[in-house]
Amino acid sequence: MKGYSLFLNVSYPSLKITFLGTGTSSGVPMIACGCEVCTSPNPRDKRLRSSILVESATTTIVIDTGPDFRCQMLRANVKKLDAIIYTHPHKDHVAGLDDVRAFNFFTQQPMEVYANEITQEVIIREFPYAFADTKYPGVPEINLNTIDTEPFTIGDIPVRPFLVWHMKMPVLGFRFGKFTYITDANRIDEMAKEMIKGSEVLVLNALRKEPHISHYNLSEAVALVKEMRIPQTYLTHISHQLGKHDDINAELSPGIELGYDELVIKF
Ligand SMILES: [Zn+2]
Ligand SMILES: [Zn+2]
Ligand SMILES: [Zn+2]
After folding, report:
1. What's the gap in Å between 108 CA and the centre of ligand 1?
2. How far is the CA of 98 from the centre of ligand 2 (A)?
3. For a FRET experiment, which of 17, 30, 84, 105 has its CA 20 to 30 Å from that of 77?
4. Which residues, other chains included, contact 192 with Cβ-Cβ below 8 Å and sequence gap of 6+?
5. Single pTM value for the model
């Protein structure tokens, strides 16, 4: 753990985190659903697929590019994107990758993509035209960088990945100084808990109140946050089944609240 504590002592750039999406794989509202959440007029009950933007003064990173990636880049007015980091290869986290073409067009550079091996396999399988020997003009230009649980740096932002579990699938969580982002987990080993401890702000997935085979439900997420004594937590990857934003927030203890799209936090 010595190396890790040294890493945390690195002077960290000021960061701005933008919640680009806080919804589960179907998004909220869900197509064709008439429930009270899906028909709520509250903008906080509208959730694109889960993703965040991490920005320093000089570097911009997105975590995951789900099916809403294009809308999210437009809504957050992102003009420059230095890299994409992936948590895991599920469709609601990778489907939007094709739209990096716009950034390729303006920079004339490939997009730097950081992903573990299982995620890279899916990216290559699902976007084969981007990796063909003879490429059709205008396909996405992608430079794959392999990550695991070793720290790495993008621009001036040090990134500390660690492993969490999504049923049987390993998912990468990421620590950025005082801030930690975890989505699509339902189990976290003791070693990873050590990586998370000391975070001032945590983003953690909480799907709904009922149990789920591969996601924390609300009570499991709350118990984990309390066990790790994190001062401020925002829940993400939320289903319409959880309930309306304002109703659920009113039930939560101080220091734990639901994330919502376009929420911005700064360190
Ligand atoms: Zn997901
Ligand atoms: Zn609904
Ligand atoms: Zn998933």
Report:
1. 31
2. 28
3. 30
4. 162, 163, 164, 173
5. 0.95
